[in-house]
Each structure stands twice: as structure tokens, then as C-alpha cells.
Amino acid sequence: MREAHSVEQVRAAEAALMAVLPGGALMQRAAAGLAATCAGLLGRVPGSRVVLLVGSGDNGGDALFAGERLARRGSRVDALLLAPKRAHTAGLAALRAAGGRIHPADAPGFLADAQALVGGADLVLDGIVGIGGRGALRPPADVLAAAAARSRALVVAVDLPSGIDADTGAVAAPPPGPDRAAGPAGLDAPGAAPGPVAGAAEAVEGVGGAWHEAPPRPAGPGLPGAAARGDLTAHGTAAQAPAEGDAHAVFGTGMALTAVRADVTVTFGTYKPGLLVDPGAEYAGVVELVGIGLTPPAPVLRAAQHADVARLLPVPARESDKYARGVLGLVAGSERYPGAAVLATGAALRGGAGAVRYVGPRPVGDAVLAAHPEVLVGDGRVQAYAVGAGLDTGSEARARLATVLDAGVPVLVDADGLTLLAELGKSALARVPGALLTPHAGEAVRLLAGLGLATTRADVEAERLATAAELAAGYGATVLLKGSTTVIADPYGETWANPTGTPYLATAGSGDVLTGLAGALLATGLRPVDAAVCAAYLHGLAGRLASADGVPCAASDVAAAAPRAWAEVRRA
Ligand SMILES: NC(=O)C1=CN([C@@H]2O[C@H](COP(=O)(O)OP(=O)(O)OC[C@H]3O[C@@H](n4cnc5c(N)ncnc54)[C@H](OP(=O)(O)O)[C@@H]3O)[C@@H](O)[C@H]2O)[C@@H](O)CC1
Ligand SMILES: Nc1ncnc2c1ncn2[C@@H]1O[C@H](COP(=O)(O)OP(=O)(O)O)[C@@H](O)[C@H]1O
Ligand SMILES: [K+]
């Protein structure tokens, strides 16, 4: 399991450790781990070209000391000091002593030289800001972040990609204005007002190493799954990329980034939530954790791995029968949307329950039976309900929802069921012993409106953790908020980020498949939060398997791949 801690928790743990260690020891531990990862990525260290982007705080200090270690092993190291007067003094002296070259941002011609160095580097180390960062990158860091994204160098972020919010994963929008001016003293200039934007185009696995079957990224020399930079379009900048060193072209086309896009992030002591949640997770690339001896308290966010899910997945006992394994009642589909019922039942049959009972209009039941003859049709006893996929919002749907919410068993509410729930308000869940709500961002907006809170889809997408927690507390239910990073929050404060998935899951009916899996797991007796964590994980993995080699998949392919996902998890 990956555990993430807030900046406040990291600072407290760091202070406790620093009180009993000699000065500078923590930074040396961090720098040693960082240099070791960089050396592994470079493969051959002597003769390699390493460029350090050095900001004004300890994040820059880490980069300088790691640069010192690489210089001593034969790398050519160039440090670009973005705030020369405030660069880490001891780190600077150490790098100088090891033969590193220092380039202060207030030197004439700095920007053009800096871009040329970044363009020719094998590895760029991003030590601009770490957990002390606030808002968008300031000039000239923003321009150098863009240069790093264009270059063929591997970009390694120190602790976290500069510019992402460590606690939320939000990436600030660029400040308003036609072109961004950059000056030598730019990093000391006032910061931009933060405002989140969605992450850009690259498809990555989110949390590196979580995957036994990594996505098809070209492998770097030393770290399996890490990308060797070769494809400019991966960073969405190739079409506009100006010639290296052409500062005018850079400013003329507004080529600046509000955050660094890393291939690899080396983070210290513990994961930061922003590394596990998009858009930050996408900017972080593959994340490596370097232990520095911190002992932080309970995490604010967790991300499951195969073994965690394997421990939770139900296994039938020797003398189980289908009722003991759990029966899911699926209240889904309508004459208008019969497919949702067919998809959800198909997935539910692969979700570990003993039986799936379909409850709904007769013609839909016939369609379900035609596709899945093993489904029971009609009312009967169940251990959990899943209600809402393709249900419609008319009077019949309302009556069905009311019956389910009164049945005294755990209930998963999805899609149209959520629209109706938002109208009814949280009191509608009063008699449900364990509710699981599975909104996408648009449905989350409606649910928040049901609590009297106005927001937008963009705000939900930028603040996924806060939104899920707010809904969980407001409705007294577990909430699985779907999206490029699916996050899960229960009403007692437990929060998870799902590390599996692929943008190929953005296909019609994919949410119905998730409903089927999660509903079945709920019926087996898992706690709603555990059912949600397992279902999201399996769904993401199944999506990856169904779209292997970049072949688009349909939602029914995702359901069909669920047993393979299950098997892969179990093998762990
Ligand atoms: N915690 C631990 O256990 C350990 C922590 N360690 C390391 O320390 C790091 C934290 O160091 P830190 O506290 O010095 O802050 P840091 O991230 O360098 O940034 C602060 C500076 O950045 C500036 N700045 C802010 N926003 C900006 C922006 N948008 N764009 C540009 N600049 C911006 C800000 O300037 P100001 O706002 O004051 O003008 C200030 O000067 C941590 O991430 C890890 O790497 C390890 O060494 C060992 C163990
Ligand atoms: N860009 C993306 N990356 C990864 N997963 C995604 C992405 N977009 C959507 N998904 C996943 O696909 C599913 C879509 O569900 P939903 O929005 O309910 O679709 P539908 O209503 O068509 O079934 C969710 O599990 C969501 O997390
Ligand atoms: K950084």
C-alpha cells in the first residue's frame, strides 16, 4: 500500500527527526537516494550531461547535493540558479568543489544559454520547488520547465514536480496576459494566482511501479517502466516547439508551463497526496520513494496495490452456497436504456457474488437474460442492491429507488439514482446500512447541490479529494468519485486514490461495468469502502487489459477482462 501524508504532517515528522540528527543529515539522505536513482536512469554516469534547475529553497539544495554526487562520478553538471541570491549555500559550495558549473539567472544571456543546456542534457533535475511551493511556476522557471518538456532529456523531479500542489495534485492555470515576461530575477517576482486546470494529454499509469503490467512506455536504461524521452508529442508541445535557445520564439508563442512534467519523481520520506491524484499524478510520471527515516502519523490518503486488493477479495468457503456468497439485486436499465442493465449484470456476474438478481421492466429483463442466462429475474432476497444505471428518472424509477433504500441492506447508488438522490437529499439514505455512491464529476455537482453547495464540474475535477470527502461527510455515505483518477472517501475520513486505469475507460457504459463489480463485492459482505477500492482497482486493471497495445475497447470488453484482472491481482 502506498501511503501519502500532507505537507503539514511531513513538516512535523521532519522537525521531530531533525531534532535528533546532525544538521544536514536529512538532506544528505535525500540527495544520496536521488543521485542513486539518477545514476540508474543514466546507465553510464561518466560523460553524461546533467542540468540542475535550482530554486530558492531546500528542494534546490537536494538537487545541488545530488548534482555534487553525480559530478564526483564523472557527470558534467550545470546548475541553473533561478534565484541566485537565495540558492542553498552549502549545496552550492559542494557542487562547485566537485567541479560543477554554476549559471546564475542574473548573468547576461542566461535564458538562451539555459535553454541550450537543457536542450542538450541527458537528464534534467527539477529542484525548483518542493513542498514549499505555492501556485504556478514563476518566470523564468516556467520557461525552463517548457524547455525541459521539449528536450530529449529525462526529467527527474525532486520530491514532486515543481508547480503541482503537494496536498491536492492541482496544477495552477497560467496567469492572464498575452505573453509571459521573464526576467533574470523572475523567480523572486510575485507568484501567479493559483487556479486549477485539467492535466494535459499524456497517458501514463499514474503511480509508477503499481503496475505489474506497465503501460507501453519506452524503458530508460536503469529503471524499468521509466520513459526515455523520445517523443515530443508525449508532452503536447512538439507542434509549437521553437528552436532550442530561441528565447524570442519561446516568449512569442507563450511557451511556458505552470508545472514541470517529469518522467520520474523521486519523493522523500512518504508519498504526497498530489503525486497520487491527477493532474499531479500525471505530471509526476513514475514515482520512486526514498526512505529518509521519517515516521509520520496515519496517512491522509492511501493507494492500494495488488496485494492489498488480493487480501480483500472474497474467496468462497468450502461449504459455501450461492446465497452465502451473496446475492446482488440490480435495479438498473429502462426501456430507454436497456444496455446499462445488460452491462452491469455482465460485470456483476464476474464480481464474486453467488448470484445476480435483476429487478426491472420485463423487456429489459428479457434482454438481460438473453445476454446472461445465469441471471435471476424478479424480486427476491438480496444481500445488497445496486441501483441507478440507466434507470431513468420517471415515477417508476423513483418508486424503485424508494423500495431499495428501504430494504435494510447496503446499497450502491449510481447514475440516474444519484440524480434522484440529489433531489431527495441525504435523509433518503437514513435507513441504508452502508451506502456507496459512485458519481462522475457531473453527478457530484448535482449531489453537492443537494447539500446546498454550488460548484462546477471543473472545480470538482480540480479538487477531487476535497469533493469526495465533502460528499461522504454530507451524505454519511462512502463516495467513489469517478474520473481519470478515481478517489474514494468514506464518512469516517478514510480516503483512497485508485492507481489503476486508462483513458480508454472513457467509453460509454464503462461506469455501468464499475457499478456491477462494486455492487457484487458489496453483496459479498465487504465494507462499502473496501468494495469501492477493490472494484475501482479491478475495473482500472481490466480496462488496461482490454485496451492492451493501444487497441480501443468497449465497455463489455472491460467486463470480459475482469476475470483476468482478478487473476493478476490474486497472483500477487
Ligand atoms: N520534509 C523533509 O523531510 C525533507 C525535505 N527536503 C526537501 O526540502 C523541500 C522543502 O524545502 P523548503 O521548505 O525550503 O521549500 P521549497 O520546496 O524548496 O520551496 C520554497 C521556495 O520556493 C519558492 N517558491 C514557492 N513557490 C514558488 C513558485 N510557484 N515558483 C517559484 N518559486 C516558488 C519560495 O520563494 P518565496 O515564495 O519565499 O519567494 C521558497 O524560497 C522538500 O520538498 C524536499 O525537497 C529534503 O531535503 C530532506 C527532507
Ligand atoms: N480519462 C480517464 N482515465 C481513466 N479512467 C477514466 C477516464 N475517463 C473516465 N474514466 C473512467 O471510466 C468510467 C466512466 O464512467 P461513467 O462516467 O459513469 O461512464 P458511463 O456513464 O458511460 O458508464 C469511470 O470508471 C471513470 O473513472
Ligand atoms: K521539484
TrEMBL record:
Gene3D superfamilies: 3.40.1190.20, YjeF N-terminal domain. Residues 10-300 form the YjeF N-terminal domain. This is Bifunctional NAD(P)H-hydrate repair enzyme. Residues 305-569 form the YjeF C-terminal domain. Catalyzes the dehydration of the S-form of NAD(P)HX at the expense of ADP, which is converted to AMP. Together with NAD(P)HX epimerase, which catalyzes the epimerization of the S- and R-forms, the enzyme allows the repair of both epimers of NAD(P)HX, a damaged form of NAD(P)H that is a result of enzymatic or heat-dependent hydration. The keyword Transmembrane does not apply. The lineage of its organism: Bacteria, Bacillati, Actinomycetota, Actinomycetes, Kitasatosporales. K(+) binds at N59, D126, S162. HAMAP family: NADHX_dehydratase, NADHX_epimerase. Homotetramer. Residues 179-197 have a biased composition (Low complexity). It holds the Pfam family YjeF_N. Keywords: ATP-binding, Isomerase, Lyase, Metal-binding, Multifunctional enzyme, NAD, NADP, Nucleotide-binding, Potassium. Its EC number is 4.2.1.136, 5.1.99.6. Its cofactor is Mg(2+); K(+). Binds 1 potassium ion per subunit. PANTHER family: ATP-DEPENDENT (S)-NAD(P)H-HYDRATE DEHYDRATASE (PTHR12592:SF0), ATP-DEPENDENT (S)-NAD(P)H-HYDRATE DEHYDRATASE FAMILY MEMBER (PTHR12592). In the N-terminal section; belongs to the NnrE/AIBP family. It comes from Yinghuangia aomiensis. AMP binds at K482, G483, S484, T485, T486, G511. Residues 169-197 are annotated as: Disordered. It catalyses: (6R)-NADHX = (6S)-NADHX; (6S)-NADHX + ADP = AMP + phosphate + NADH + H(+); (6S)-NADPHX + ADP = AMP + phosphate + NADPH + H(+); (6R)-NADPHX = (6S)-NADPHX. (6S)-NADPHX binds at residues 58-62, 130-136, 159, 340, 390, 440, 512.
